[in-house]
């Protein structure tokens, strides 16, 4: 198992509000976390930093190599809830931080099982010889319009509210996270990333850059490809190769 991550401010932002954490765990497991902050000039970076740190700390404290998938699910869901409480409390305490929040996608690979939790529109992808699969579902108005059929498909991408986040860590006192669990095999790759990457690169291009490529090289190329397109957002990519 190999894991790496890279984040970049991009071409137009004054601050990088993305955060990531990666770590190998006991028993050959791996942990990856990506957060994309939102809020005021400083609050988004604070929210993503607090959330990524809270999830990381909870997992590092609780993970054991003999954990079953159901226990890993409970741990990840609890970690995101703890992060939500922390960020929400901080946002409630200070007027300058009011309304701050962050996306969060976190994954653990252990004993051939990939466990993923997410809130917001930062994504997890699984890549195998069969191609690329988006594991997570975006919590955005665009996805809501598409799933409910309330906006014509041809108009979804043009809607002025399409990028509005419908769920985020720290915005409300309670959080509803999605959880996914699937098998992962030798040779497969996992990508966690922010929308600063996926808004500029197609799934097919991401697959061609990442699958069966050295992970450091792939992470760098993903960032470079977005910047070559004059990406207007922060960019973060975390890659794990099994």
UniProtKB/TrEMBL annotation:
Kindly give the Pfam families that the UniProt entry links to this protein: PP2C_2
Q: Name one GO molecular function term.
A: protein serine/threonine phosphatase activity
Q: Which CDD domains match?
A: PP2Cc
PPM-type phosphatase domain: which residues? Answer: 2-242
InterPro entries documented for this protein = PP2C, PPM-type-like_dom_sf, PPM-type_phosphatase-like_dom
Protein name per its UniProtKB record = Stp1/IreP family PP2C-type Ser/Thr phosphatase
């Amino acid at each position: 198992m190999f894991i790496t991550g890279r984040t970049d401010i991009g071409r137009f932002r004054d601050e990088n509000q993305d955060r990531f954490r990666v770590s190998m765990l006991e028993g050959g497991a791996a942990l990856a976390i990506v957060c994309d902050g939102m809020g005021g000039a400083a609050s988004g970076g604070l929210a993503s930093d607090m959330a990524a740190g809270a999830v990381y700390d909870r997992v590092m404290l609780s993970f054991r190599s003999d954990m079953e998938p159901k226990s890993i699910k409970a741990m990840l869901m609890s970690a995101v809830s703890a992060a939500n409480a922390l960020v929400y409390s901080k946002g409630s305490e200070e007027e300058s931080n009011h309304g701050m929040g962050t996306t969060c996608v976190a994954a653990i690979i252990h004993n051939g099982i990939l466990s993923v939790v997410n809130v917001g529109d930062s994504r997890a992808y699984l890549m195998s010889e069969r191609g690329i699969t988006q594991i997570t579902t975006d919590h955005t108005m665009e996805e809501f319009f598409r799933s409910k059929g309330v906006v014509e498909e041809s108009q979804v991408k043009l809607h002025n509210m399409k990028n509005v986040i419908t769920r985020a860590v720290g915005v409300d006192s309670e959080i509803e996270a999605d959880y996914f669990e699937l098998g992962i095999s030798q040779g497969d790759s996992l990508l966690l990333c922010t929308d600063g990457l996926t808004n500029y690169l197609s799934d097919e291009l991401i697959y061609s850059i990442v699958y069966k490529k050295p992970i450091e090289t792939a992470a760098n190329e993903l960032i470079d490809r977005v910047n070559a397109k004059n990406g207007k957002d922060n960019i973060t990519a975390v890659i794990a190769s099994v």
